[in-house]
């Protein structure tokens, strides 16, 4: 299926815009969420990787670990502007500014070379794969957060399922039941040596082969 056709299926007639704006502020316990950590089997050819933390808050504010509401393994936690499973803020969707939300995370495992982030719509599939809204790799593991609409220097972004490079926010067909969106951060033990605009499936395959740890947070959105 072509990217354009996919866009029609998921977005319908609604277009998505992009915007900017962000700033850090203290944690708000009511707007922070975390996810559980998955440590990849050590038998992977690529070897073990570290864990990651993420904060997020309303309109660019990043909540911190102190406000965590979830469990994680080996210290890997992901934080977003919403409690896990709650609706994503309209600001980050096609009905708002359509910019990537602020994210923050705890320190990844020793040996982590870079971090990668993936956002998928678990309620929409292209053949057998979830609809991809964002894939970004090459994030320095020394970093502890991404601000709104931020792509760090040196990072690479995949071609999403709408046929564009970078973030495209939730935009389910009007009238659909709430879609579920999964935000995942991966700790990688090698660099992802692929260029901007690489097909999401190819970059995802690379990420999954290099990942030694991951953690995720979900959100919903309905129009």
Structure characterization notes:
By secondary structure, the chain is mainly β. Helices cover 9% and strands 26% of the residues. The protein is built from two helices and nine strands; from the N terminus they run αββββββββαβ. The strands form two sheets. It has a six-stranded antiparallel sheet with strand order 1-9-8-4-5-7. Strands 2-3-6 form a three-stranded antiparallel sheet, with no helix packed on it. Residues 1-73 have low confidence and may be disordered.
Distinctive features:
9 strands, 9% helix, 6-stranded antiparallel β-sheet, 223 residues, disordered N terminus, globular, mainly beta
How many strands?
9
Give the helix proportion (percent range): under 10%
- What is the gyration radius calculated from CA atoms? 16 Å
First-to-last CA distance: 24 Å
- The pLDDT mean sits at 77
């Amino acid at each position: 299926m072509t990217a354009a056709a996919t866009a029609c299926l998921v977005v319908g007639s609604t277009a998505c815009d992009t915007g900017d704006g962000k700033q850090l502020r203290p944690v708000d316990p009511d707007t922070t969420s975390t996810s559980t950590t998955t440590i990849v089997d050590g038998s992977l050819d690529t070897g073990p990787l570290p864990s990651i933390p993420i904060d997020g808050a309303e309109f660019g504010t990043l909540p911190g670990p102190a406000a965590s509401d979830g469990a994680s393994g080996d210290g890997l936690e992901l934080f977003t502007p919403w409690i896990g499973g709650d609706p994503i803020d309209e600001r980050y969707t096609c009905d708002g500014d359509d910019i990537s939300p602020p994210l923050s995370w705890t320190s990844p495992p020793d040996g982590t070379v870079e971090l990668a982030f993936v956002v998928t719509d678990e309620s929409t599939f292209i053949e057998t794969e979830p609809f991809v809204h964002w894939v970004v790799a090459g994030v320095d593991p020394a970093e502890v957060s991404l601000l709104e609409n931020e792509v760090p220097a040196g990072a690479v972004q995949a071609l999403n399922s709408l046929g564009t490079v970078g973030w495209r926010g939730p935009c389910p067909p009007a009238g659909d039941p709430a879609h579920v969106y999964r935000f995942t951060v991966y700790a990688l033990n090698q660099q992802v040596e692929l260029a901007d605009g690489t097909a999401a499936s190819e970059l995802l395959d690379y990420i999954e082969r290099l990942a030694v740890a991951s953690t995720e947070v979900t959100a919903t959105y309905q129009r």
